[in-house]
Amino acid sequence: MTTTVPGVIETAEVHFDDFDPMGIVHNARYGILVERALMKYWIRHGWSFDPGRSKLGDATLAVREVSITYHVPIFEAGTVDVHFWIDKLGSSSVVYGFRVLSPDHTVVHAEGRRVQVAIDRETGRPKALSDLLRKAAEPLLVSSPPAS
What we know:
Strand order of the largest sheet: 1-3-4-5-2
Largest sheet: 5 strands, antiparallel
CATH architecture: Roll
Number of domains: 1
Oligomer: single chain
Structural class: alpha+beta
Helix content: 10-25%
Radius of gyration: 16 Å
Order of helices and strands: EHEEEEH
Shape: globular
């Protein structure tokens, strides 16, 4: 990939326990690779596992939906790059698009979407995204998704 694309690319570690008995990364582990990449971005922008320490307000987001299309298996431990962006930033939800790439970006291993909803910790019900979180999300927001 030689062109500039919207979104962010973060590196994620592929560990030996991510592999299935066939010697390829297990399909369920791709969501974890995406999670690891997203966490790098959000922690760097002030999010914390402890809501009292988060610089983004009370940002508790629960995954509502994940869909993944698998293209080329990952056969080796090491690193992959995860390219992600936000397709839609709603009042209480975030819709990400993502691609799991080889380190040199010549192979798209998988691509998909992930929907998260901000929830109130006391009620478990959806709540509005904080203005601080919305501002930190702006660099990820794209008007049209990148081509695969």
